[in-house]
Amino acid sequence: MILVIRKQASEKEIEDVKKKIHSLGCEVHESVGVNCHILGIVGDTSVIEPGTFQTNPAVDKVIAVQEPYKKSNRMFHPDNTVVKINDMEIGGKKLAIIAGPCSVESEEQIISIAESVKKSGAGFLRGGAFKPRTSPYAFQGLKKEGLELLKIAREKTGLPIVTEIMSTDNLDEFVEDVDVIQVGARNMQNFDLLKQLGKTRKPILLKRGLSATIEELLMSAEYIMAGGNENVILCERGIRTFEKFTRNTLDLSAVPAIKKLSHLPVIIDPSHAAGLWWMVEPMAKAAVVAGADGLIIEVHNDPENALCDGAQSIKPDKFDKLMDKLKVLAEVEDRAI
Fold first, then answer.
1. What is the spatial distance between Cα 77 and Cα 83, in angstroms, rounded to a whole number?
2. Rounded (5°) CA angle 206-211-216
3. d(CA 39, CA 51)
4. What span, in angstroms and rounded, lies between the C-alpha atoms of 295 and 145?
5. CB-CB contact of 230 with 77 (8 Å)
6. pTM of the model as a whole
7. Helix, strand, coil proportions of the chain in percent (round to 5)?
8. Using an 8 Å Cβ cutoff, are 179 and 164 in contact?
9. How far apart are CA 220 and CA 143, in angstroms?
10. What torsion do the CA atoms of 154, 133, 265, 3 make, to the nearest 10 degrees?
11. CA–CA gap between residue 294 and residue 185 (Å, rounded)
C-alpha cells in the first residue's frame, strides 16, 4: 500500500501518519521526490481497513500495490536509485563500465588488464576469485589469493573491484575487501546468502538467473532490500532459451521493462549473454541505446590461453575501440561515460 502525501501536509501530520502505520505492525518506506512525497507501507497490509488513511488530512491518495516486491517497486520510489561506490556512481547520468577478466590468474595478468581498461575509460575492475563452474574439474579460481591480487590491482589503479561471492563463508572478507559484491546467476535465489547480504550496506550486483523471470529477479532484490541494504544493482546477463548458437539469449527488453517496474539501476553483461567475443561489441552498443545504466565486459590480454571463458573475452585494444564508440552512443542518449 502506498500513501501519497499532500503537498500542504505539515511535518507533524506526516509523523502522525508514520506512527499510525507502525502501530498497525507495518514498516514505513519513505520517498521524497521532486514532485511527490510518498509513504510505502511494508508488511501485512491485510490488517489495514480500506478507509484507515483515506480520510487523513495529510494523505492525498491511497494506492494498493499488487506486486509482491515492494521496496524495489518504482511505485514506492518514483525516482531512479543511484548507488554510490566511493566517488563513483551506478544509476546516474554517467554509464558505469565494469571491465576485466573472467578469472584472476596472476598478479601480472590482473594488474596489466586493470591498467589497460582504466586507460580506456573503465570505472570498475571485475575479476573472479571464486568461480562457479558447471564442471567440478574446471578451474575454480584462485580463491583468497585471487582476492589479494584484486586488492593489489585496486591499489595500483584506484579502480573499485567487483567480484563474485559464492557463499556466506567468506562474507566478512568480502565486506572488508570488495567494493561491489556480485551475486552470480546460479546464486540469484540463494535466499540465505541474499538475507545475509541484506544485513550489510555493501553495493550488491545481482545477476538474473539462467531461467528467471523479471519478477523473480526483483523478488531476489527484495530479499536484500528487506534486510535494510538498498544498494542493489540489477544485471541482465542472458537467459536460457532453446537457441544454441549463443551461450545465452540476451534479453534487452528486460532493461525498459525493469525500469518501468523498478527504480533500481540495470546493467548488461554482453560477454556472458553471447559467449562469443565478436558479439560483445554489437550487444554492448545495443544495451546503451536500450537504456542500460552500465556494462560489465570481460577483457583478457591473452584470451586464447585464458583459464576461464576466453571465447567471450575481448582484447584490450578491442575494448579501447569499443569505448570510443560507446561514448558517441551515450551522448545520443543524453548520457556520458
1. 14
2. 55
3. 16
4. 26
5. no
6. 0.89
7. 40, 20, 40
8. no
9. 25
10. -130
11. 18
Grid look-up 584472476 returns: 104
Q: How far apart are the first and last CA of the chain?
A: 38
Q: What are 314's three cell numbers?
A: 575481448
| Each residue's pLDDT expressed in tens, for the chain with a length of 337 residues | 889 999 889 999 999 999 999 998 888 988 887 778 999 888 878 778 868 898 899 999 998 888 889 899 998 888 999 999 999 999 999 999 999 999 999 999 999 999 999 999 999 999 999 877 778 877 778 899 999 999 999 999 999 999 999 999 999 999 999 999 999 999 999 999 999 999 999 999 999 999 999 999 999 999 999 999 999 999 999 999 999 999 999 999 999 999 999 999 999 999 999 999 999 999 999 999 999 999 999 999 999 999 888 999 999 999 999 999 999 999 999 999 9
Q: Using alpha carbons, select from 220, 209, 204, 223 the residue that is nearest to residue 163.
A: 204
Domains of the chain in sequence order:
2-63 (3.30.70.1140), 83-332 (3.20.20.70)
d(CA 168, CA 178): 14
Distance CA 116, CA 98 (A): 13
Rounded to 5 degrees, what angle do the CA atoms 102, 103, 107 make? Answer: 130
Amino acid letter at 113? I
CA–CA dist 93, 272 (Å, integer): 25
C-alpha 308 chain-centroid distance: 23
**Residues in Cβ contact with 168 at an 8 Å cutoff, skipping those fewer than 6 apart:** 192, 193, 196
Picking from 150, 115, 155, 160, the residue whose alpha carbon sits closest to that of residue 130 is 150
Residue type, 130: F
